[in-house]
Amino acid sequence: MPAINIAIVGVGNCASSLVQGLSYYREGANDTVGLMHWDLGGYKPTDIHVVAAWDIDQRKVGKDVAEAIFAKPNCTTVFCETVPLTGTKVQMGHVLDGVAEHMSEYDDHRTFLLAGEKEASKAEVVAALRETKTDVLMNYLPVGSQAASEFYAECALEAGVAFVNNIPVFIASDPIWADRFTKAGVPIIGDDIKAQLGATIVHRVLTDLFAKRGVKLERTYQLNTGGNTDFLNMSNHRRLASKKISKTEAVQSVAAERLHDDNVHIGPSDYVPWQNDNKICFLRMEGTMFGGVPMNLELRLSVEDSPNSAGVAIDMIRCAKLAKDRGLAGPIDAASAYFCKHPRIQMTDDLAAQAVDEFIAVAAE
Ligand SMILES: O=P(O)(O)OC[C@H]1O[C@@H](O)[C@H](O)[C@@H](O)[C@@H]1O
């Protein structure tokens, strides 16, 4: 199998976990533990190589990706200390609204923004994608980066590179963008990555269970706290809107009956700096069961957010490459439904898992 060349936009915690994972699995340790697929349609994690990367933070720009992933403000757990140099240097990106809160507003770090460093133009990004023979572009910009995500989506379209939209900005699920990818012959998977065993999938599976067992879900909340830049960004409500829509729709879409807005509260709830990349989710579900008798369920989930995302990203990359190999274009619906919170077409996670397996089997033929 040939290699899969990926480019990364936004060398934050999620990118750090992904790149660490590529080394972790390359070293042969724990071959398959923590993966949904070791061999996905003939592609293994060891086939993935980072060939281009963009960021806008001086602490990362100019460094090899293997070093930039450990630069501040990244704070995720280091589970692979020795990541060999990739030979790929982080380039200055295009800023627009793709700037994290800690750099834009109440900010000690503004100086780290590369004043004087020329921003990458669209032509330069497209040329770099072509020169490096990038197969898949991973969008890891901060939540709320609408314009910047659209800029890189445009670059992917022009370069004919598959686009994986990990963030809650609506591109794969937006009919106009979906149509543009279809017409350009370019596959896209998105929107908003659903963590391996995160708040969304747990909440969805339990909501589906209520539906299947005939228990009427009356009220629910999902409160999340964390201390990474994602949570810091989301303390700015302007950047939060699409994230709340994405997370809420992910749960509403599997409920037997849509809950009234007053009875569902799902969102990032608070920024707790000392938590760093540890995310804690508090979940409550209230229902009515046999005989109209009430019940409730409470759950607390504690996860390291970024490895939890990387465990899914490693499969999205390979599905995007399989789609590209097969000449598929536009949103890849099975993969988007299984791996993302806000796909164009929602499915239960059981059906989505089955649809992904079928997609892999057909795509690999
Ligand atoms: O735990 P959930 O609800 O699946 O959400 C997790 C993911 O949500 C994404 O929006 C974040 O950018 C990721 O950092 C995170 O891993």
TrEMBL record:
<dbReference type="GO" id="GO:0008654">
    <property type="term" value="P:phospholipid biosynthetic process"/>
</dbReference>
<dbReference type="Pfam" id="PF01658">
    <property type="entry name" value="Inos-1-P_synth"/>
</dbReference>
<dbReference type="InterPro" id="IPR036291">
    <property type="entry name" value="NAD(P)-bd_dom_sf"/>
</dbReference>
<dbReference type="GO" id="GO:0006021">
    <property type="term" value="P:inositol biosynthetic process"/>
</dbReference>
<feature type="domain" description="Myo-inositol-1-phosphate synthase GAPDH-like">
    <location>
        <begin position="198"/>
        <end position="306"/>
    </location>
</feature>
<comment type="similarity">
    <text>Belongs to the myo-inositol 1-phosphate synthase family.</text>
</comment>
<dbReference type="InterPro" id="IPR052199">
    <property type="entry name" value="MIPS"/>
</dbReference>
<dbReference type="InterPro" id="IPR002587">
    <property type="entry name" value="Myo-inos-1-P_Synthase"/>
</dbReference>
<protein>
    <submittedName>
        <fullName>Inositol-3-phosphate synthase</fullName>
    </submittedName>
</protein>
<dbReference type="GO" id="GO:0004512">
    <property type="term" value="F:inositol-3-phosphate synthase activity"/>
</dbReference>
<dbReference type="InterPro" id="IPR013021">
    <property type="entry name" value="Myo-inos-1-P_Synthase_GAPDH"/>
</dbReference>
